[in-house]
Specification:
With 147 residues, the protein is α+β, with helices and mostly antiparallel strands. The protein is 19% helix and 20% strand. The longest helix is centred in the N-terminal third of the chain and has 14 residues, at 2-15.
Length: 147
C-alpha cells in the first residue's frame, strides 16, 4: 500500500511541472548540425545531381532501403542516373550511404518530420526518371540495369 502511495505522489508531482517538449510543434526544435535525418541528393551548378550512379550507397545500405536505376552512357564511359529512391520506413539513418559516396552526392538534411499513417508514403523519390535528362535508349528492354 505504501508503494502505491509513493507512485501516486510521484505522478502528482510530475503533473504540475512545466512541459518538457518546449512548445513543439509551434516552436521547432533546433537540432545539432550533424544530426542524421532525412536524405537528399546534392546538386551541381548545372542543376543535375552530383551522383555518379556508381551504386555504392545502394550496396552499402544494411536495410536495402535504397534503390537506384541507371543506364550506360552512350557518349562515353560511366552511367546515367535514371531514378533514385529511398524507403524511409526501412532506413535506420546510419549514414553509411553518405560516408561511402565518392562524389558527395547524397547528404542528410535537417528535415525530421517524415512520419505518415500510410506505409506507402515513406518512399522518397530523390531523382525521377525523365526523358529530358538523357537521350532515349537504343534498346529499351536491355538498357534498364539495376546498379
Amino acid at each position: 500500500m505504501i508503494g502505491i502511495l509513493r507512485g501516486m505522489a510521484s505522478t502528482i508531482t510530475h503533473l504540475f511541472r512545466p512541459n518538457f517538449n518546449g512548445g513543439y510543434p509551434d516552436t521547432p526544435k533546433v537540432l545539432p548540425e550533424r544530426s542524421r535525418m532525412s536524405l537528399a541528393l546534392a546538386f551541381g551548378e548545372n542543376g543535375l545531381p552530383l551522383c555518379k550512379a556508381c551504386g555504392l550507397c545502394e550496396r552499402s545500405c544494411p536495410d536495402a532501403a535504397i534503390r537506384i536505376v541507371t543506364n550506360k552512357r552512350e557518349d562515353g564511359p560511366g552511367r546515367v542516373l535514371d531514378s533514385f529512391e529511398i524507403d524511409l520506413g526501412l532506413c535506420m539513418y546510419c549514414g553509411l550511404c553518405v560516408e561511402v559516396c565518392p562524389a558527395a552526392g547524397i547528404m542528410h538534411t535537417g528535415h525530421f518530420e517524415v512520419s505518415t499513417p500510410d506505409r506507402a508514403d515513406t518512399r522518397l523519390t530523390l531523382w525521377p526518371a525523365t526523358v529530358a535528362t538523357r537521350p532515349a535508349p537504343a534498346n529499351p528492354s536491355s538498357e534498364a540495369v539495376r546498379a
